[in-house]
Design goal:
Elements: E1 7-10, H1 11-16, H2 18-28, E2 30-34, E3 41-44, H3 46-67, H4 70-83, H5 92-112, H6 117-132, H7 135-140
Parallel strand pairs: 1-2
Antiparallel strand pairs: 2-3
Length: 156
């Protein structure tokens, strides 16, 4: 995981001097373009982005292959608390279900470009853990429900 913050320029810089900004992006590999009235975006070379996509796809396929084998699935389930410490509030079956759901969502992101799936899976299971972390509150929750209650915003 690359934790270094990329260089950045303003959208105004890009519009005033696109050649210099493009050269800087080429030199640094990835350049964040900040915009006061819109979301930031990155300027990067297409071949670099294609390599990142290929890496994500390969990683996703490896995890899918692991989850299909008992030993691989167990290894993934075992490391989940290291990656997501809040899973300690989930039962063993819930951690397994979260693991499978997350691997499938990451596969969807890699193979289908469905980038929204994995964060939704994580947010949903984190919310479940948050509820279960409060035993009194958890006991007060109602039983099973049916139907779709609409979108839920993640609380960080």
């Amino acid at each position: 995981m690359n934790i270094a913050r990329p260089d950045s320029v303003t959208f105004t810089d890009l519009s005033r001097n696109p050649r210099a900004v493009a050269e800087r992006a080429s030199r640094t590999g990835r350049l964040r373009v900040t915009h006061r009235d819109a979301p930031d975006f990155y300027l990067t070379a297409a071949d670099r982005e294609e390599r990142r996509d290929a890496d994500l796809s390969t990683t996703s396929r490896m995890f899918l292959a692991m989850i299909r084998r008992d030993a691989g699935a167990q290894a993934l389930v075992t490391v989940m608390p290291d990656v997501f410490p809040w899973t300690r509030h989930l039962g063993d079956a819930e951690v397994r279900a979260f693991t499978v759901e997350l691997v499938e969502a990451l596969s969807d992101a890699a193979e289908l470009g469905a980038d929204h799936s994995a964060p939704e899976v994580i947010a949903g299971w984190r919310a479940t853990a948050r509820i279960k972390a409060d035993p009194e509150g958890y006991q007060a929750t109602p039983g099973p429900t049916e139907g779709d209650y609409g979108p839920v915003e993640a609380v960080e």
